């Protein structure tokens, strides 16, 4: 063979094999591209996938990793704000796929059983999404090592059986999904390679099996927030590699298992909120411990002294148990210790002195024990400290000076001890101090003037001490001060004039001191003042008439040396003894006080008569209603009008109008709306402003209907039990301050009816603007802002205060629009008020409105925030589609929720669902909002996102055109001190 032939042959072989390679290669390229583009087509927010197109090599697609043969091996698209559904039929046709990472997105829909075609999968992360339906069978994923499905909306029965042969699994995370209740899945016990198991909050009941001991490689075992009962099995003590063991919030009982002490690697141990008892001797050798959480159990015995030598301990929380004895002196002195909470035990001895040695401690919480000794000097240098609470112990001595000026300290609570000494001047350097509680100690000396520099102060509670001298004249500098309680001390001198400049004050208690001089006139300008107690002092002069303009729930000026006439309006809020022990005081028509001179008596009669005339006129007007005719006929004929005299006014904001002005405007021609609970009137004030007044009837409360009512009623004075639930609720509503919540100015009530006075919203309701003849063209930006604003308002109701407040009647007609079309929620909580007030026709008063009512109303009385979220989802659908919640076009007995869900599922042209007036370029965003609405209206309440989440999701789809504009985002949404101080 000639060399030429040879080389020619070689060349042609090469040529053909290259051609062959090219053909195979390009076909694989196009198949893979085809699959990936199909996968992309069901995703909604796919800007990130712009590189996924017909031109690029698939191995160059964003998030794609190929193997050396240019076959797709990995899809890495977690945290990309992807929405839409997953086409596993396309994705799993990629035969070399080993890794799918799609966690922390906005993905929804069900996960197809075609997932089982991904047979080479080693890594699957679908966690933190919004899927629905059940998890499909996983048994074919025999190569899988990492499986994360936590917090992704799955429900129904989890296919536990399908895990039994997936023995390569090292990481398994299924928690935070509302699966159907199941006993502890025994299949898990076969997964002997597991080193991390997260089954927190997925409805597992029964006991933890002894067989858990098989999982010897486990480093992290988390079974918290389930319904587990019985004892912690001894098997757990065989898991020598455990670093984290979390079992909190179950129903576990018994003692800590014998042998736990052999888990020498344990660093995070949390069994809080169970029913465990016994002592902690099993923990004393666990020297790697970093975080020990044992609170809310019934543990007893002493704290092992060995804890004092734990070199890594950073968090120690054992509150609400039955521990006795002393804390180890050196606890928390080694690592960067963060907090201790040993409150509510029977501990004694001194406060360990070195917990802030590394300068990281933020919380020292030791309330309700029997600790003795002083506050260690060391803490005077603990600049990281935020909360210092040692109330209700037997601590004594002087507080180290440096404590008072710690730069980050927000709360200092030393109440109910025997501390002594002065409050030093360096308190003026405190930069973050909001609450100072020193009541019931032996503090003495003068209140330093420098306290007026602590502009962050909200509460000062110094009662029952031995403070003396004058209240600093500069106190008016404290503009955030809400409560000042100095009662039961020895303060003297005059009440400083400047107290009237503390504009946020709601409570002033200076009782039982030796204050003299006159009551400052300007206290009458404290618009939010609610309680004023100056009793038991040596105050002189007359009661300033300015106090009449306050709307107080309690005033006590008794046992002073006041003289003259008690202003008439104050008599309304006074209780019997409010003015007692002031021989010089008189009043007109009060049985407790001496009558004033006859001249003024006459004039007051005139005034009373006028009230009665106005009220009577109102009653007559209202008597148009048949309902009232019936009632009137039952009333004693001699005094039909006196009933109406007792209008009780509760004011929550600074008012520029009088109740008379409001009452006069409650006439037929001023009606602007009629609702189930009453009519709404528009009131034009003389000053040019406008109000909306909602009038509601009440009937005799059925005594049983509020007997067992919640304790919230207790926030009002006991003597006013006209309709306690109503009043408490109104008081709660009135405390709300948010720019997306309509302001309730005041409530005016008589025995028959209530008037709620709101700010007037000139652009009517969203319903009007979407669906009626007042309809206007709203572009996408406006609709988005309305959705966002309403969402923030509702988020505030749900999360803004400690007790979540339900709206109960979220609908577009309760979303009102101001002159700039900014939305505000109205009528919140009223459904409940109306219900508990038990109108005669209470059967008609279902909470909520047809078309907006979440399905669970049908089968449970346990209505939660999630029901509001359903209704809000309906509003979002209205905004996007422009359609009404109930409309014949959806088909018989079908509503907008059914229609949108069906259309989204059919995933045809989703743009066709969007209101035709919305411009093309906004339609993609509109579909995203619709997607959020679908989440909000899931049938199972647990699958609906929280309002906080909804706000976050809406923020993510903010139109580009709005991002440049500075939008006031919840400026008012943070109410200082809305939350009451929590244990932690
Ligand atoms: C991927 O893209 C880069 C530049 O964007 C290009 O240089 C490279 O050749 C591409 N690779 C393939 C395999 O197409
Ligand atoms: C696990 O493997 C066993 C033995 O091969 C088999 O009988 C069983 O059906 C498998 N389980 C599942 C859920 O596939």
TrEMBL record:
Under InterPro entries, the record lists:
Kinase-like_dom_sf, Leu-rich_rpt, Leu-rich_rpt_typical-subtyp, LRR_dom_sf, LRR_N_plant-typ, Plant_LRR-RLKs, Prot_kinase_dom, Protein_kinase_ATP_BS
Coiled-coil regions listed: none
The transmembrane residues are 608-629
Q: Where is the signal peptide?
A: 1-28
Supply the SUPFAM superfamilies for this chain.
L domain-like, Protein kinase-like (PK-like), RNI-like
Q: Name one GO molecular function term.
A: protein serine/threonine kinase activity
Cell compartment(s), UniProt: Membrane
Short name of any one Pfam family annotated for the protein: LRR_1
Q: What are the entry keywords?
A: ATP-binding, Glycoprotein, Kinase, Leucine-rich repeat, Membrane, Nucleotide-binding, Receptor, Repeat, Serine/threonine-protein kinase, Signal, Transferase, Transmembrane, Transmembrane helix
Q: Which PROSITE patterns match?
A: PROTEIN_KINASE_ATP, PROTEIN_KINASE_DOM, PROTEIN_KINASE_ST
* A GO biological process held by the record: response to other organism
Q: Which domain of life is it from?
A: Eukaryota
Q: How does it sit in the membrane?
A: Single-pass membrane protein
Record's family?
Answer: Belongs to the protein kinase superfamily. Ser/Thr protein kinase family.
Q: What is this protein called?
A: Protein kinase domain-containing protein
């Amino acid at each position: 063979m000639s060399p030429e032939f040879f080389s020619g042959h070689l060349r042609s072989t090469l040529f053909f094999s290259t051609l062959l390679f090219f053909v195979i290669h390009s076909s694989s390229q196009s198949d893979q591209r085809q699959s990936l583009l199909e996968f992309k087509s069901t995703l909604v927010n796919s800007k990130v996938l712009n590189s996924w197109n017909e031109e690029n090599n698939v191995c160059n697609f964003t998030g794609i990793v190929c193997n050396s043969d240019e076959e797709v091996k990995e899809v890495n698209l977690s945290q990309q704000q992807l929405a839409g559904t997953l086409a596993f039929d396309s994705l799993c046709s990629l035969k070399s796929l080993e890794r799918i990472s799609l966690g922390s997105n906005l993905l929804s829909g069900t996960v197809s059983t075609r997932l089982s075609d991904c047979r080479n999968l080693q890594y699957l992360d679908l966690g933190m999404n919004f899927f629905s339906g059940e998890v499909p069978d996983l048994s074919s994923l025999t190569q899988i090592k990492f499986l994360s499905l936590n917090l992704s909306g799955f429900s129904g029965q989890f296919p536990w059986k399908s895990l039994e042969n997936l023995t390569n699994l090292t990481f398994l995370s299924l928690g935070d999904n509302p699966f159907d209740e199941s006993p502890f899945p025994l299949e898990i016990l076969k997964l002997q390679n597991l080193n991390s198991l997260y089954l927190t909050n997925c409805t597992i009941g029964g006991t933890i099996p002894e067989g858990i001991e098989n999982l010897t490689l486990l480093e992290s075992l988390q079974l918290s927030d389930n319904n587990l009962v019985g004892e912690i099995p001894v098997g757990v003590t065989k898991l020598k590699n455990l670093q984290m063991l979390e079992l909190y919030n179950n129903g576990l009982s018994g003692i800590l298992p014998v042998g736990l002490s052999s888990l020498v690697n344990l660093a995070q141990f949390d069994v809080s909120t169970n029913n465990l008892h016994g002592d902690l001797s099993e923990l004393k050798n666990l020297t790697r411990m970093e975080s020990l959480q044992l609170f809310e159990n019934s543990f007893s015995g002493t704290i092992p002294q060995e804890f004092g030598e734990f070199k890594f301990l950073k968090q120690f929380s054992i509150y609400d148990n039955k521990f006795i004895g002393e804390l180890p002196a050196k606890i928390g002195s080694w690592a960067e210790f963060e907090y201790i909470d040993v409150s509510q035990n029977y501990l004694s001895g001194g406060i360990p002195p070195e917990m802030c040695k590394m300068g990281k401690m933020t919380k020292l919480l030791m309330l309700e024990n029997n600790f003795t000794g002083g506050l260690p000097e060391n803490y005077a240098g603990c600049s990281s400290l935020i909360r210092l609470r040692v109330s209700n112990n037997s601590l004594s001595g002087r507080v180290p000076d440096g404590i008072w000026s710690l730069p980050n300290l927000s709360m200092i609570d030393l109440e109910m001890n025997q501390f002594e000494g002065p409050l030093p001047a360096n308190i003026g350097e405190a930069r973050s101090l909001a609450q100072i509680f020193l009541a019931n100690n032996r503090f003495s000396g003068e209140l330093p003037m420098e306290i007026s520099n602590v502009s962050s102060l909200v509460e000062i509670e110094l009662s029952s001490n031995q403070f003396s001298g004058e209240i600093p004249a500069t106190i008016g500098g404290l503009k955030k001060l809400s409560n000042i309680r100095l009662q039961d001390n020895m303060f003297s001198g005059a009440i400083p004039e400047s107290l009237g400049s503390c504009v946020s004050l709601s409570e002033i208690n200076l009782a039982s001191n030796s204050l003299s001089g006159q009551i400052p006139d300007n206290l009458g300008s404290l618009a939010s003042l609610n309680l004023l107690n100056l009793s038991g002092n040596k105050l002189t002069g007359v009661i300033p008439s300015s106090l009449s303009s306050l709307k107080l729930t309690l005033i006590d000026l008794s046992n002073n040396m006041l003289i003259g006439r008690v202003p008439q309006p104050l008599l309304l809020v006074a209780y019997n003894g409010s003015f007692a022990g002031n021989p010089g005081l008189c009043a007109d028509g009060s049985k407790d006080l001496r009558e004033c001179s006859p001249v003024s008596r006459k004039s007051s009669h005139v005034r009373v008569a006028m009230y009665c005339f106005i009220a009577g006129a109102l009653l007559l007007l209202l008597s148009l209603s048949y309902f009232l005719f019936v009632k009137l006929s039952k009333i004693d004929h001699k005094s039909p009008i006196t009933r109406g005299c007792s209008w009780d006014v509760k004011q929550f904001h600074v008012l520029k109008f009088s109740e008379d002005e409001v009452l006069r405007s409650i006439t037929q021609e001023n009606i602007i709306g009629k609702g189930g609970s009453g009519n709404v009137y528009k009131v034009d004030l003389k000053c040019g402003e406008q109000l909306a007044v909602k009038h509601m009837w009440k009937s005799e409360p059925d005594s049983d209907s509020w007997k067992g009512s919640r304790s919230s009623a207790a926030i009002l004075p006991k003597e006013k039990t006209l309709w306690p639930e109503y009043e408490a609720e109104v008081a709660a509503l009135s405390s709300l301050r948010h720019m997306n919540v309509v302001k309730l100015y005041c409530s005016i009530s008589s025995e028959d009816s209530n008037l709620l006075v709101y700010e007037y919203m000139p652009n009517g309701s969203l319903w009007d603007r979407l669906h009626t003849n007042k309809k206007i063209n709203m572009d996408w930006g406006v609709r988005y802002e309305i959705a966002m604003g309403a969402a923030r308002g509702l988020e505030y109701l749900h999360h803004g205060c400690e007790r979540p407040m339900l709206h109960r009647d979220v609908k577009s007609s309760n979303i009102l629009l101001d002159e700039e079309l900014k939305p505000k929620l109205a009528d919140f909580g009223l459904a409940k008020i109306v219900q508990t007030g038990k109108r005669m026709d209470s059967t008609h008063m279902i909470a909520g409105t047809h078309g907006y009512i979440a399905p669970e109303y049908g089968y449970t009385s346990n209505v939660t925030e999630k029901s509001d979220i359903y209704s809000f989802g309906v509003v979002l659908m209205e905004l996007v589609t422009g359609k009404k919640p109930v409309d014949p076009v959806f088909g018989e007995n079908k509503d907008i929720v059914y229609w949108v869900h069906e259309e989204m599922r059919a995933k045809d042209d989703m743009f066709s669902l969007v209101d035709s007036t919305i411009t093309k370029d906004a339609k993609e965003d509109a579909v995203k909002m619709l997607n959020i609405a679908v989440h909000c209206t899931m049938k199972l309440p647990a699958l609906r996102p929280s309002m906080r989440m909804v706000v976050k999701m809406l923020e993510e789809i903010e139109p580009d055109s709005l991002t440049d504009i500075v939008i006031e985002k919840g400026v008012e949404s943070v109410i200082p001190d809305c939350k009451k101080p929590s244990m932690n």
